[in-house]
Design brief:
The chain folds into two domains: 54 residues; 172 residues, 2-Layer Sandwich (60s Ribosomal Protein L30, Chain: A), CATH 3.30.1330. The protein has 232 residues and is α+β, with helices and mostly antiparallel strands. Strands 1-4-2-3 form a four-stranded mixed β-sheet.
Length: 232
């Protein structure tokens, strides 16, 4: 009889101990769950704030920019200076229209530096707008120059003309600002007439000839310039 009572007491004691352990584990799990939920909520809040800070810097834009900037010599360690049309198309891995669309959110920060037909010379209006755009860095890391040509002339000639336009912009910045960091800040893409021609939608952007004609030919005798402040 006494042995039976001892077994019952032992069973009840064990049951109470297990119950207490389970209760403690449940309380601990609840605390851990609350902490995890709070941490995840905090992470989401940080992510939203970070995206808001970057504004137009979508994941797709940053992915393309990293590929373009690395391949065309902007990012430290790039093996060359500038990209020509076939390279730019290959690096971007998208259509010309989609490539241009990536930069639409940059309208307030970008400028279109326009040139005369068959010329790579910067006129006074182009210089004024280029200087103003470059001076408005606002902490950005990369200054992108994307030059084009209208379709008069041969493809090879227009490719070379757009290269001269990009280099004309770079040369002016070097002479005007004497910035030792230019080699790491300014990246060049020359597209000729072959890739990502601008359409009339871009007539609404800041142009160095705002009162002049704005057809496809006038728009594409140009260099698009903008500071890029995405965190890559």
């Amino acid at each position: 009889m006494r042995s039976g009572l001892r077994h019952v007491a032992l069973f009840l004691g064990t049951l109470l101990a297990v119950t207490a352990l389970v209760a403690a584990w449940v309380r601990g799990a609840a605390v851990r769950l609350d902490r995890l939920v709070a941490e995840q909520s905090g992470e989401r809040a940080v992510a939203v704030a970070s995206a808001a800070d970057e504004g137009y810097c979508t994941g797709e834009l940053k992915r393309i920019l990293r590929r373009v900037l690395t391949s065309c010599g902007l990012v430290q360690g790039g093996s060359q200076r500038g990209c020509q049309p076939l390279q730019a198309r290959s690096v971007a891995a998208m259509s010309g229209a989609d490539f241009n669309a990536l930069f639409v959110p940059l309208a307030d920060r970008a400028a279109i530096i326009q040139f005369d037909q068959d010329s790579a010379d910067l006129d006074a209006q182009a210089i004024e707008l280029l200087d103003r755009t470059f001076a408005d860095q606002r902490g950005a890391s990369y200054f992108l120059v994307v030059s084009r040509a209208s379709p008069e002339g041969s493809v090879a000639y227009n490719r070379e003309l757009s290269r001269r336009r990009a280099e004309s912009v770079l040369q002016h910045l070097e002479e005007r600002f004497h910035d030792p960091d230019l080699e790491r800040e300014v990246g060049l893409l020359w597209l000729g007439e072959e890739f990502a021609q601008l359409d009339r939608e871009f007539c609404q952007w800041q142009r160095s000839r705002p009162t002049g004609p704005c057809g496809g030919a006038e728009l594409n005798r140009s260099a698009f310039v903008a500071w890029i402040d995405c965190r890559l």
